[in-house]
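Re-run requested by the PI after the first attempt was lost when the workstation crashed. Everything re-entered from the original request form. Ligand of interest: zinc ion.
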Amino acid sequence: MRALVYHGPGVKAWEEVPKPVLVDDTDAIVKVDATTICGSDLHILKGDVPEVTDGRILGHEAVGTVETVGAAVRRVRPGDRVLVSCITACGSCRFCREGRHGQCLGGGGWILGHLIDGTQAEYVRVPFADTSTYPMPEGASDEDILMLADILPTAYEVGVLNGHVRPGDVVVVVGAGPIGLSAITGARLFSPSLIVAVDLVDSRLDAAKRFGADVVVNNGRQDTLQVVRELTDGLGADVAIEAVGIPDTFELSATLVRPGGHIANIGVHGKPATLHLEHLWDRDVTITTGLVDTYSTPTLMRLATSHQLNVSHFITHHFDMDDFLAAYDAFARAADTGALKVVVTPRSSS
Ligand SMILES: NC(=O)c1ccc[n+]([C@@H]2O[C@H](COP(=O)([O-])OP(=O)(O)OC[C@H]3O[C@@H](n4cnc5c(N)ncnc54)[C@H](O)[C@@H]3O)[C@@H](O)[C@H]2O)c1
Ligand SMILES: [Zn+2]
Ligand SMILES: [Zn+2]
């Protein structure tokens, strides 16, 4: 089969590799019908994720068809159509039993396209198939459900639910990439009075408006704190969601929130950020961090199939698997191409 293989920082290839086989009796082999690229894949290619080694097949999002299952797989059967989620869950460790699959101690967590071969391939081996896949629902397309493999549960769980967004809230989302736009999408389910999107790139702010932001702020040109204060009688936002992952934007998010508000960090940080406790200690704020667990995936599926969550507008580009390198190029040059999510499918299914 062919797969997108990482060969060290800056080097990747769409090349012939052995087809995966069952290793553990809880595995399934899934034929990939649609996959996509995540910002984390770009981080890997920059060399920011050193545990990813030469030869690793990338990708942690897919919709596919189960081809074979191990002897201990109970629920998933050959021929089933499934969503393969970014988080794998052993289902029985202490954290899986709490729904914290991202912290799985039993060999799960974020492993696909990271510690084991991933989904940017014609076939993928999915460990713990019963607890790491979701049956495809009726009434939504493959590519729509593919959007639930990572960005939507991440922004919903780590941004919207951790941030306790409630009806009437003023919600500021810092960063309007796929994750920030997903946070806007998820926050809208709770009828906030105002969503403010903050980004440095105007095309991303245009996207934020299309996704339902009421106010957009280009923080390269505008003073975000002043805008938020003007909108909130000087109080600050009820919830600030950080969706970039750099010290500046975390520190900005912490200034934007009202006393008693929530700061929900989604961004993956590689450098220390300063926590200004000298300003925050008496403001009763709650700061949350998190890795996605995907406990919300079934809920988001119901919302997508009942059309209460519009997921199709994330998809800006389509590619055949044989053009995987072009898909990466379009995704990596998002400021020029306007890419949000690219859908990559085998040629035969197009
Ligand atoms: N916690 C989790 O489980 C989890 C899961 C997936 C992704 N993430 C993280 O979420 C973050 C966002 O992901 P994404 O895919 O949307 O990334 P992205 O790079 O596509 O988007 C980031 C956005 O932030 C904007 N930005 C950059 N610097 C800024 C600044 N100083 N001020 C305002 N905006 C700025 C960029 O213009 C861009 O639109 C990343 O850090 C990613 O690693 C976290
Ligand atoms: Zn991802
Ligand atoms: Zn577990």
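Saved to the shared folder this time. The chain has 13 helices and 15 strands.
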